[in-house]
Design goal:
It contains one helix and five strands. By secondary structure, it is α+β, with helices and mostly antiparallel strands. The protein has one domain: SH3 type barrels (Roll).
C-alpha cells in the first residue's frame, strides 16, 4: 500500500513538472500522465521514484489536505 499527499504543480516542462507541498519542492516525471494535460495549479499524486500517478480535482486535493492537517493536529496534541 502506498500513501501519497497532493502536490501542487508550480511549473510544467517537457515530460516533467515542478511541484510543491508546503515548503517541499521536487521535479516529477509526467510519463504516466501523457494522455492527460497537466497545468500550473493542478494537484498530482506522486509515487516513489518521482512519478506523477494521478491528477486530482481541486476539491479532492483540498479534502485530502484538510484530512492530513487534522491528522497532524491530532498527532501533535
Amino acid at each position: 500500500m502506498c500513501l501519497s499527499v497532493p502536490w501542487r504543480v508550480e511549473a510544467v516542462g517537457i515530460g516533467v513538472a515542478d511541484v510543491s507541498h508546503g515548503p517541499h519542492r521536487r521535479t516529477v516525471s509526467l510519463l504516466l500522465l501523457l494522455d492527460e494535460p497537466v497545468a500550473v495549479g493542478d494537484y498530482l499524486l506522486v509515487q516513489v521514484g518521482d512519478l506523477a500517478a494521478e491528477r486530482l480535482s481541486p476539491a479532492a486535493a483540498e479534502d485530502a489536505l484538510s484530512l492530513l492537517a487534522e491528522i497532524d493536529c491530532a498527532a501533535a496534541a
